[in-house]
Design brief:
Blueprint lengths: L3 E13 L8 E15 L6 E16 L2 E11 L8 E13 L2 E8 L35 E9 L3 E8 L23 E2 L14 E10 L2 E9 L21 E2 L4
Antiparallel strand pairs: 1-2, 2-3, 3-4, 4-5, 5-6, 6-7, 7-8, 8-10, 9-12, 10-11
Amino acid sequence: MKPIFLTLLLLPFAVMAQDDDNALKYKYKGFVYTYHAVRSSGQWNYMSSRTCSRLESTFEKGGTSGFVSVNAVYNPILEDESGLHLREAYLEHSQGSWGLKAGKQIVTWGVADGLQVTDIISPMDYTEFLAEDYDDIRIPVNAIRLNYSGMNLKAEAIWVPVPEFFILPTDSVNPWAISMSGMYCQFDKLIPSKKLENSEFGGRVSAYLSGIDFSVCALHTWNKMPAFQLVTSVPTDSSKWLPTTTE
């Protein structure tokens, strides 16, 4: 990987409603940032150029709350990435020790960044690999989650009707695209059909005891990282293949 130059500008903001127990409470917050990366050798071309504004809205009344997060992105290098993108949108209701959350959401299991042992429900978007924050490349999933919180115990059951999978860049316009030196590459996206029998489901139990904390989880899921198969023959119609070059 050749060295690159990075510039980051962050402008946070937040607006809150007046504190009134009898009224609907709401809060808006967000930020604006611009990110640019340039090669420090070779062609000195842009590796990434992106400006993003995120708006997050939270509202609640009684035991019911909702959350919506939207990104407005301008990316002159990857034009398909530009536009308005709904990141999360879910409703949550809690009563006593029980809680229910349904909608488009990011699910995080585990506490270690970069080491995905149990954190495999929300996959990753590698469209601009190493050019985005770790939390921003998580892909939200449409899920229903049932939670229980006790004094020393937490339990969760989850159902994901339609699983999401890792996104790898294959467009040759993308500087972060997958490439194999001296070879033609064709990428066919093969994922399970949208049937209930292909949905994800599972649960976890976490205990917080004196001197020790532990979690036990089980998940019926898929291998979400794409698997590659090498084909040595080159088809006659090579226009459907992606040529790769090295500098």
